[in-house]
Amino acid sequence: MLSLLRIWFDILTPKQVMFFKPAIDILKKCDHEILSTSREYKEANELARIRHVELKIVGKHGGAERSQKLVQSANRILKLTDLINAFEPNVAVSFSSPEACRVAFGLGIRNIGFNDSPHAYAVAKLSVPLLDLLLCPWIIPYTSWIRHGIQRRRIFKYKGLDPIAWLPKFEKLPRDDSKDRIYGLQKNNTFLDSRKKTVLIRMEEAHASYITENKFKDTTVKMIDRIIGNLSHIANFSILCRYEDQKSQISERYSDKANVISNVVDGLELISHSDIFIGAGGTMTTEAALMGKPTISIAPISFSVEKYLISQGLAQRASTPERLEKITRKIVADRGSAHKQVIRASSIVKKMEDPIAKLISLLNRNA
Predict the structure, then answer these.
(1) Is the pTM of this model over 0.85?
(2) Which residues of the chain have pLDDT under 70?
(3) Does domain 170-349 have CATH number 1.25.40.10?
(4) Top-level class of domain 6-160+353-366
(5) CA gap 347, 326 in Å, rounded
(6) 237 has which bridge partners?
(7) 160, 60, 56, 150: which is closest to 111 by C-alpha?
(8) Where are the domains of the chain?
C-alpha cells in the first residue's frame, strides 16, 4: 500500500487552475493531504472560485515593473517559507513558480515543475535550475531547457499539450441568457448581430517580463484596429483582457466598436460559444485550436507550441494587420471551415497523453 503524501501546489495563473485541478481532485480522493497556494491575482482567484479550487492566498502579483516584480516575489518567498515549513510537504508541484522553487529548494523539498514556455526567460531562469524534475510537452527541444541550467536527465516529456489535462473533461453547456449577458455574447445588442459570426480576441500577457521588455503591445493594438475597422460589417468582436489597466485601455479604445468583457469568465465556455478565436497569448490559443475552433495566433513572439499547432493545421499565424484581416475574412466566408477544424482537432487530441497522468505516476513512485 502506498504511503500518504503531503503535497504543495503553487497555482499562479488561470491556466494553472485548470491544469492542476484534476490532479488535486484525484489526489484528495486517495486521501493525500493537499495545500494549494496562490497570490492576489484576480483572474486566477476568480477562476479558482468558479472551478471550486480552494486556494490559500499568499502575497500578490508584481505587475509590469521590474522593481515591483522583485519586491513582491521576495515578500512572497518570506511568507511562503513559514507556511510551507509548518506544512512539511513531501513534494512541491508548480508550473515553474519562481517562489515555490526557491522555497522548496531552501527547505529541501522534492520539487516537480511543469513548463511549456522556455521563451518566458525570466521565469525559466529563476525556476528551472532548481527543479528536481521538469515535465514538458514532447515538442520542446531539450536544448531549450538545458540553456536555463537543468540537466537533461531531469527532464521528462509527455506526448501532449497542456490543455489535454482539462479539455477532455469539459462539457459544453447549452447557451444560457444570464451567462451570455455576463460574457457579452447576447444577440441583438449594439455590438452583436445574430447574422454575423462572433470573433473572440484574447489580449497579450502585457505584464509578463518577455512582453514588457520588448515593447510589443502596440503591435497587437494595430492588428485589432485593422480587423475591427475593416470587418465589423461581417463579424462581431469580443475582447477578453488580462489586467485591469489593460481592460481600461482597451475599453476606452474600442467601447463603441466591440464588446470588451469586463468579468472574469470561464474561458472554455467563452471559446465554445464563439465562432473564431484570435489569440495574442498561448493557453487560450491552444485551447481553441484543440477544441477545433478556427484559430489565429497574433502572439508577439513565436513559440514551440504555436509552431506545432500551425504545422498540424490547427492554427494560422498572422504577423501583420494585413495578414490578420485576410485570414479572418477568409474564415468568415468559408462556411465549412468550422466543421473541418473540429474533425482535424478531434483526431489529433485522441492521440495525446494526459500530463496529469504523468504527474500522478511520478507522485505514486515517490509515495
Answers:
(1) yes
(2) 1-2, 171-193, 206-217, 366-367
(3) no
(4) alpha beta
(5) 27
(6) 199
(7) 150
(8) 6-160+353-366, 170-349
